[in-house]
Specification:
Layout (H helix, E strand, L loop, with lengths): L7 H10 L2 E3 L11 E3 L3 H15 L9 H28 L3 H34 L14 H4 L1
Antiparallel strand pairs: 1-2
Helix pairs in contact: 1-2, 3-4
């Protein structure tokens, strides 16, 4: 998708953004794409296009706190899916598989909690830079985090 027919998509991204994309050949074991640009705007423009074409989310426009929240949501979604799979395995009589999936779900839940804690700290700092001692902005925090 990123290369396009005869390199047309790649060439269009490079021409319109001024960035340069390095894509490994098909027979390569690598799937790493490198995007380089002379300035941040060109880099971000190219990365946004890659995001859309490849259905990815680099969190380019996000603050650190928002990016951490997104990562926490992904971990939460993964936890929910693993829990569902664990229940299905249990109902199908595969206790060992159910236990393994349940443990994986618990690990994702811990990851989600850790990411949310980091997000809360980052969001608080981002919202309160330069504010006086008697003023604070709690927007972006969950209720429990704001208490």
């Amino acid at each position: 998708k990123l290369i396009g027919r005869h390199g047309a998509v790649k060439q269009e991204i490079e021409e319109q953004t001024g960035a340069s994309l390095s894509i490994p050949p098909r027979d390569s074991d690598s799937d790493q794409v490198t995007v380089e640009a002379d300035n941040q705007k060109a880099l971000n423009d190219a990365l946004r296009r890659v995001e859309v074409i490849c259905d990815l989310d680099f969190g380019i426009a996000d603050t650190k706190g928002e990016a951490l929240r997104k990562q926490a949501r992904v971990a939460g979604d993964r936890r929910a899916e693993l829990s569902k799979q664990s229940q299905e395995a249990y109902h199908n009589g595969d206790g060992a598989e159910a236990k393994e999936l349940s443990d994986m779900a618990k690990a994702e839940a811990s990851k989600m909690d850790e990411l949310n804690a980091k997000a809360a700290e980052a969001i608080f700092e981002e919202k309160n830079v330069g504010r006086g001692d008697m003023e604070m902005d709690l927007h972006g925090l969950y209720v429990q985090e704001a208490l």
